[in-house]
Amino acid sequence: MDSKTLQILIAMSLYMAIVIFIGIAYAKRANQNSENYFLGGRTLGPWVTAMSAEASDMSGWLLMGLPGVAYWTGLSDAFWTAIGLAIGTYVNWLIVAKRLRRYSVKSGNAITLPDFFSNRYKEKKKVILTVSAVFILIFFAVYAASCLVTCGKLFSSLFGAPYIAMMLVGAVFVLLYTLIGGFLAESASDFMQAIVMVSALVLIFVLGVNAAGGLSNVIENARQFPGFFELFGIANPVVVDGVQQTSEGMPLFGESGKYGLITIISTMSWGLGYFGMPQVLLRFMAIRDERELPKSRRIAIVWCVISLLAAVFMGIIGRVLYPTALNTASSAENVFIIMSTDLLPALLAGFAMAGILAATISSSDSYLLIAASAFSKNIYQSFFKKDASEKHIMMISRITLCVLTAIAAVIALDSNSVIFKLVSFAWAGFGATFGPLMLFSLFWKRTTRSGAIAGMISGGGMVFIWKLLIRPMGGVLGIYELFPAFVISCLAIIIVSLLSEKPGRDIEEEFDEVAAGKRAAI
């Protein structure tokens, strides 16, 4: 190991030590009861709420996946995705956050998303709770796998070690950290990690622009590749067996592809996913006072816009600086790593790499914790041991964490996995399964339990059907699966709710109280 690699390792080790310390510091409080472990006792302040929501949401794909898309096919795909995400972030904080915080307390002080949906419709047979918990387990396994792929690629690229070994090291670290501290530790460290992430992005962006000779020079050089720096066109790398071809030291691109309205709608529909993201929605439920949410919203949107734009343009700058260094869609996701190690002194590069680790940890611990709560609280306690003690529930949660981490590691075994594709599938799954139901649960009094069940099953199921069977047909049907699945889920909720018996008086009265702004005491 040379001196530069050693310095990078030292910097990353220091960062990991700080993260572990945070976990230990919060361990005693987190383990008092399941509410503290899974929701932090609803004590988050506005800064931690905002920053932890964004850090856990963006994950390693912000520093690797999104720049990789921009490096591989140019500006349009990454840019329109970022626009959709920024709009979705703002609207979610604006219309969902306050009402969900209020409603989750009013509906039996729900501490998980399945709890909230089940309590909202006051179901005796826990069908909503079970269906939502199962979908959470399925899609978070895929989400956690994307984080482990990030760890594997990061450590393998930096230290030249085998991908699988490095991925497993990352899995063990994430698991141990999540087992120790729970939601409070996760949220506190996410606050720090959000700062590391945005700082690393902005720093590498500025240094990259300078190394490329200024922003105008970046744009001029990017435009030499057909469709690369266009909002209504897309670059088409010339590939053979997945590897981009080169000529005279330059990458080869085919004729620019068209980027029409349907494609823009497809990529911008990423923003719809926010309404169903458990890791973000839980932060809304966990803030200590709903009156602090406007401040959180402003913090979140500023962080989001800066980070997304820096990540998109990092991919463009990377293609200008290193036009042939990354010749597959999978390796293109290493552009942030190459820029960091090339443009920064070794020790600072280590802290920049910690930005990737920060993004990965902040997301994977959220995913694993939410999935574990879905099983232990919403399936195990509801169906197998209703009188389970808090200590017993915590034990089952930890066992579930171990099993889920193992499943995610199996999914992540393929070193050629593309982080962006894994995330896009899980994102669509959550967005279509829970997004429409969340909006109708909060804003349409006529929504019924039957409508809620129909919406979840049709939305989540259509993600698989569209992704695997319909989207491969191409053309108009090649649209991102989130959009059609979201629409179908909305239609199912409306139609089935209107065809079924209207909600009971107690459900309607509770809805009216929440809509009127009455806050329930915890």
Index terms:
6 strands; single chain; Sodium/glucose cotransporter; two-stranded antiparallel sheet; mainly alpha; 2% strand; two-stranded antiparallel ribbon; 522 residues
A few lines on this structure:
The protein has one domain (3-118, 136-416): Sodium/glucose cotransporter, CATH 1.20.1730.
Largest sheet: 2 strands, antiparallel
- Content of β-strand: under 5%
Number of strands: 6
The CATH architecture can be given as: Up-down Bundle
Helicity range of the residues? over 70%
Reading the helices and strands in chain order gives HHHHHHHHHEEEEEEHHHHHHHHHH
Q: What topology, given as strand order, has the largest sheet?
A: 1-6
Number of domains: 1
Distance between the termini: 55 Å
Provide the CATH topology: Sodium/glucose cotransporter
By DSSP (H or I, 4+ residues per run), the number of helices equals: 19
Taken from the alpha-carbon principal axes, the silhouette is globular
Commentary on this structure:
Strands 1-6 form a two-stranded antiparallel sheet. The termini are far apart. The chain is globular and about 75 Å long. The protein has a single domain (3-118, 136-416), classed as Sodium/glucose cotransporter, CATH 1.20.1730.10. The mean pLDDT is 86. It has 19 helices and six strands. It has helices at residues 3-30, 34-39, 46-58, 61-73, 75-106, 113-120, 127-159, 163-211, 215-222, 261-268, 278-286, 293-321, 335-343, 346-384, 390-411, 419-443, 449-470, 482-499, 505-515; strands at 233-234, 239-240, 243-244, 246-247, 250-251, 257-258.
